[in-house]
Amino acid sequence: MYKWLILFLLMAVPAFASISILGPLTGANADYSYYDLDVVLENDQYIEGFSGSSGGPENTTDRTYYEYIYMTPDSAGDDFSFSNYSSSLQGSDGSTVDTQVLLYDSDTFDLANVITSMPEIFNSSSTVGFGGGQSLNSGQGTGTGEGAFDGLFDLEEKEYLVVFTSFQANALGSMDIEINGPSDLYFSTVPESSTYALLVGILAFLYIATKRRTD
């Protein structure tokens, strides 16, 4: 029975989110914290019909896929850096280097409003349709090419809902992201529906196994 339980638990681990976090990493500057994030855009989270750029979805059959995580700085400070240094995304028109990072105040926004509503912080370029807010300087992510986010902005000491996406239609794949700043960052996720299903399956299995042993 324990072998089957371990197998169920191993299956449940990666289902919590499609974002892997390595950090804080040891850097040359001891006053800064470094985090490496591996984000995978899968086909389970998306909005339909959103046109965020000139090359973005143009009709209701196109999808904008995204992943999200909650992030809280240990303290407020200047020069928090978000950089997409590598990516492997495939959209309707083939490979793309267009990547987007959108930060919302978790107290005022939820997942029902992401992407279609203006974020508090976002990467700024001529192709991003948001106005106002605190823009992240657009630029060339190392090893990625023009269109990847790479810049600095100020963070407050509060929880942010951080959304990673691409405004190219139907883009799926992975992006490697480095985040660093003058304080530690704390990340948390909400289990996806597939995780809940696995947990229910584990509980049902334990109930049946226990009942058989007692009968």
Provide structural commentary.
The chain is of the alpha+beta class. The chain has helices at 2-12, 193-214, and strands at residues 19-25, 33-41, 46-48, 63-73, 77-91, 94-96, 100-105, 121-124, 134-141, 145-155, 160-165, 172-181, 185-188. The protein has two helices and 13 strands. A hairpin with a 3-residue loop joins β9 and β10 (145-155). The chain is globular, with a radius of gyration of 19 Å. The relative contact order is 0.27.
Q: What is this structure's SSE topology?
A:
Blueprint: H1 2-12, E1 19-25, E2 33-41, E3 46-48, E4 63-73, E5 77-91, E6 94-96, E7 100-105, E8 121-124, E9 134-141, E10 145-155, E11 160-165, E12 172-181, E13 185-188, H2 193-214
Parallel strand pairs: 8-9
Antiparallel strand pairs: 1-2, 2-12, 3-4, 4-11, 4-13, 5-6, 5-10, 5-12, 7-8, 7-11, 9-10
Helix pairs in contact: 1-2
Proportion in helices: 10-25%
Annotation field: number of helices? 2
Structural class: alpha+beta
For the biggest sheet, the summary is: 13 strands, mixed
Overall pLDDT level = 75
The N- and C-terminal alpha carbons lie at a distance of 16 Å
The topology string of helices and strands comes to HEEEEEEEEEEEEEH
Give the amount of beta strand, in percent.
over 45%
Uncertain ranges: 3-16, 53-57, 138-144, 191-196
How many DSSP-defined strands?
Answer: 13
Shape: globular
Spell out the key features of this protein.
single chain; 215 residues; alpha+beta; 13-stranded mixed β-sheet; 2 helices; 13 strands; 45% strand; disordered N terminus
Summarize the structure.
This protein has helices at residues 2-12, 193-214; strands at 19-25, 33-41, 46-48, 63-73, 77-91, 94-96, 100-105, 121-124, 134-141, 145-155, 160-165, 172-181, 185-188. The chain is an alpha+beta fold. Strands 1, 2, 3, 4, 5, 6, 7, 8, 9, 10, 11, 12 and 13 form a 13-stranded mixed beta sheet that branches.
